[in-house]
Each structure stands twice: as structure tokens, then as C-alpha cells.
């Protein structure tokens, strides 16, 4: 009589469960960072549309919600960039093979008010090397730009004052030289002589 053997096959799914849990935690952390960050965060398609933006990004550009901003802007090139040169600079930068870039430029808010923004971007590539989408961080630097402009104006005004003061000092130094004093005496003598000859 043959014996009966029972074979038990057990599959250890502990590692898979741990991996799934780690992925879930990572996704929650990313979502929390994305939604609560003080900086604007965005993802944009290669054809110039926003895919996702966070609340800070929407606020910077004057929108009530991320969903409103994504729905309202059909062309980043036409509705966000103030200057055509900005579009060209960013396009040429990434077309040249760069995958990251830092830019400062003027942008339109929802109400068409112009602000200055600082943007750190990177291009996320497909397997074939083409650009799948862009993602980046945005800060409103309008106040900083205004301070820089005011400081530059003060520097220019100070330069003018310094130039005037230098010229005044140079004139004073010239008039105090012995040569200038002699010229002034000669001029005075010639004026007196001319006056006597005409009377």
C-alpha cells in the first residue's frame, strides 16, 4: 500500500504587503507636501497646459482653487507669460537638451495684474527621450523685485550726487591753484585796462 503525501505550498506575502504599505505612505506624504506647501507646485504638459497645481500656486495667480486655475488656463504661453522672450527662453532651454532650469520672469495673474515669479523647473522624459511633462516650484518675488528696483534707483541717484560733489570739489581745487589765481588777476587787469581805454 502506497503512502499518501500531503504537500503544502505557502506563499509569503509579507514583503508585498510591506511594499504596498510603504507605497501608500509615500503617496500620502507626497499628497500632503503637494497640498500644504507654501511654494507653488505645478505639473504642466508639453503642449502648455497645467495638469496639476497646488493651492499655493492657485493663490499666487489669483485663483480660488487649484481646479479653477487648471480649468481656466488653456495656454500657459499665452495666458501666463507677459513677454514673448520668456516663452522663447524657456522653450529653447529645454529644446537644447537641458532637463532642469531656473527662471525669473513677469507673469499675469488671473486679473491680468503683472507679478514677478521665480521658477525652478525640470522636464520629465519619456523612454524615448521626448518630454512627457514639466514640473516645478514657483515663488512670488514681486516685492523683492520692487525693492531691488528701488535700491537701484537710489544707487543711480547717489551716483549723480557723487558726480556733482566731485565736480564741485574739482572746481574748488582748480580755483585755489596759483595758476588760476594768476589768470584771475590777469583777467581783472585786462578788464580794468579796457574800461580805462573806453572812458
From TrEMBL:
It holds the Pfam family PAS_9. Its EC number is 2.7.13.3. Residues 101-153 form the PAC domain. Residues 148-175 form a coiled coil. Keywords: Coiled coil, Kinase, Phosphoprotein, Transferase. It is an enzyme of class 2 (transferase). One of its GO terms (molecular function) is protein histidine kinase activity. It catalyses: ATP + protein L-histidine = ADP + protein N-phospho-L-histidine. InterPro entries: PAC (IPR001610), PAS (IPR000014), PAS-assoc_C (IPR000700), PAS-like_dom_sf (IPR035965), Sensor_kinase/Photoreceptor (IPR052162). Residues 26-67 form the PAS domain. PROSITE patterns: PAC, PAS. SMART domains: PAC. NCBIfam families: sensory_box (TIGR00229). This is histidine kinase.
